[in-house]
Write a structure and sequence with these properties.
Elements (H helix, E strand, L loop, with lengths): L1 E11 L2 E11 L5 E9 L4 H13 L8 E4 L5 H8 L4 E4 L1 H9 L4 H15 L4 H15 L4 H8 L2 H4 L10 H4 L3 H17 L5 H16 L11 H5 L4 E2 L2 E2 L4
Parallel strand pairs: 4-5
Antiparallel strand pairs: 1-2, 2-3, 6-7
Helix pairs in contact: 1-2, 3-6, 4-5, 9-10
Length: 240
């Protein structure tokens, strides 16, 4: 499932808040909106409440993989509610965070080097590109390389899933496209009013966007993932 939060003009307990959204995909590859809730993007408690509600509504086993930005309080909550779920950090967010710590004069080259990692056909080649980036920039831009180093395992989780799914699970683009519609509307309204009005508006916009969501490629392999079958470099492991 893909998870993220959007900052909008809604207030909870006199503090600025936002909308927390989770999108999932069923066994046929159809993406569906799972929840829309007001809360605090960095708050473990807000995300834990959402995950417990999903569990109450029938998601007892939990997802096999969650994709999101590394700064979310979501991850701490996920480890408590669904401890077996794998974690994948969004490469779009990670790339932006790393480049923000480097001067513009080198960002083009650095971005190309980062792309070599998540576009590599094998994890071995991805890790080689990863080490090359660290050795190339560690001395000049330690904050940038540290930003990459801190979530090494979570950045390359996608290699343990079907290759057909990689285009979907390496980043949060599936859910970000929905946010674009919401941001346009909230910007024009210049203040969404009450919590109830804001939630209703975001929910309606998300449901409309849901009608045009692309289904996952390689959906026939989703049941294999749910059954716990092992994938290596995107290929199903065949028993000897």
């Amino acid at each position: 499932m893909w998870v993220d939060g959007i900052h909008v003009n809604v207030r909870l307990d006199e503090e600025s808040s936002g909308i927390l959204v989770i999108m999932g995909a069923d066994a046929k590859g159809k993406k569906e909106l799972l929840t829309v809730s007001a809360g605090y993007r960095e708050s473990k408690a807000s995300w834990r409440e959402i995950l417990l509600d999903l569990q109450r509504r029938g998601m007892e086993e939990g997802p096999k993989l969650a994709i999101g930005d590394g700064a979310l309080g979501f991850w701490a909550a996920l480890r408590e509610v669904f401890p077996k779920c794998r974690e994948q950090r969004c490469w779009v967010h990670k790339t932006a965070n790393i480049l923000d710590k480097m001067p513009k004069s080198v960002q083009g080259k650095a971005k190309s080097m980062l792309h070599e990692m998540w576009q590599a056909p094998t994890k071995e080649k991805a890790l080689a590109a990863y080490e090359h980036f660290l050795s190339s920039w560690r001395e000049k831009y330690p904050k940038a390389t540290e930003c990459l180093r801190t979530e090494k395992e979570e950045l390359f989780t996608f290699y343990d899933f079907p290759a057909a799914h990689w285009v979907h699970i390496r980043m949060t683009n599936p859910i970000e496209s929905t946010y674009a519609t919401v941001r346009i509307r909230t910007k024009k309204t210049k203040g969404c009013g009450s919590r109830a009005v804001t939630l209703t508006m975001v929910f309606k916009l998300a449901r409309e966007a849901e009608k045009t969501w692309r289904w996952l490629m390689g959906h026939e392999q989703i049941p294999l993932v749910m059954a716990g079958k092992k994938f290596i470099e995107g290929e199903l492991e065949v028993a000897a």
